[in-house]
């Protein structure tokens, strides 16, 4: 059974069709990249899969059960890490929020916090406040907080979009290592074609302003590039360039 199923999912907001009936499935441990132009419904689809938005038609199912609201089995990483963190709490204090929400005994907090901070490479910064960290490190704190709730699924809404190119590439590689280690299932929204291909096992390409002749789902493409991936070697692979060209055609002219 797939861990996540989108069964003819359609979404309307304010009387406007944001997403026309869309169907695809996600297997456990897969990394799914979701791309498309602004306004095509990428974030709305992600929020529906996290239970933040209800589908107007069709159904999103997690382990065969309809998603009717937020769940601790699903974590959500927001793009704006600055607003996602509490500036008056230290790094460990921000991670502790997930444990407090779950009712985890305080006696177990320290070990749980340092386990996830080690995982994201921030154990040495546990006592610092968000304002003392770079943007990339703040985003790692948000990811650590999500990991502390021990989710099955992680939804990531353009988490690296506001970062500089070198920081973004470093976090891409760190994320791939994390996913390989934890077997997390990830849905990752991005505007960047290269990021979508580099990270993904599969790419879901959406188009804006869907019609009966041109529905929201423009393409569903498997990425069969070798792993582990490398920022230089992978992006020079003929298959990488072929996928980039194919997806550009779908999004630019599809």
From TrEMBL:
Entry keyword Transmembrane helix: no
Keywords associated with the record: ATP-binding, Cell membrane, Membrane, Nucleotide-binding, Transport
Matching InterPro entries: AAA+_ATPase, ABC_transporter-like_ATP-bd, ABC_transporter-like_CS, ABC_transporter_ATP-bind, P-loop_NTPase
CDD domains per record: ABC_NrtD_SsuB_transporters
Transmembrane regions listed in the UniProt entry: none
GO MF annotations in UniProt: ATP binding
Residue ranges occupied by any ABC transporter domain in the UniProt entry: 4-233
Family (UniProt): Belongs to the ABC transporter superfamily.
The protein's name: ABC transporter ATP-binding protein
Organism annotation: Mesopusillimonas faecipullorum
């Amino acid at each position: 059974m797939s861990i996540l199923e989108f069964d003819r999912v359609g979404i309307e907001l304010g009387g406007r069709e944001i997403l026309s009936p869309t169907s695809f499935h996600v297997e456990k441990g897969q990394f799914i990249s979701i791309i498309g132009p602004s306004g095509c419904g990428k974030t709305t689809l992600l929020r529906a899969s996290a239970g933040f938005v209800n589908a107007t038609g069709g159904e999103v199912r997690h382990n065969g059960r309809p998603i009717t609201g937020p769940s601790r089995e699903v974590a959500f990483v927001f793009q704006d890490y600055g607003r996602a963190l509490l500036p008056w709490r230290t790094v460990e204090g921000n991670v502790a929020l997930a444990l407090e929400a779950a009712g985890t005994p305080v006696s177990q907090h320290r070990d749980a916090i340092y386990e996830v901070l080690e995982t994201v490479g921030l154990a040495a910064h546990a006592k610092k406040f968000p304002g003392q960290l770079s943007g990339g490190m703040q985003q790692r704190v948000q990811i650590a907080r999500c990991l502390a709730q021990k989710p099955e699924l992680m939804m990531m809404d353009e988490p690296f979009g506001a970062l500089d190119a070198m920081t973004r590439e470093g976090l891409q590689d760190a994320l791939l290592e994390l996913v390989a280690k934890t077997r997390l299932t990830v849905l990752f929204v991005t505007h960047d074609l290269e990021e979508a291909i580099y990270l993904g096992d599969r790419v879901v390409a959406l188009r804006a302003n869907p019609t009966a002749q041109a529905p929201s789902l423009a393409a569903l493409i498997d990425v069969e590039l070798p792993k582990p991936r490398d920022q230089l070697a992978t992006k020079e692979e003929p298959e990488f360039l072929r996928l980039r060209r194919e997806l550009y055609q779908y999004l630019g002219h599809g």
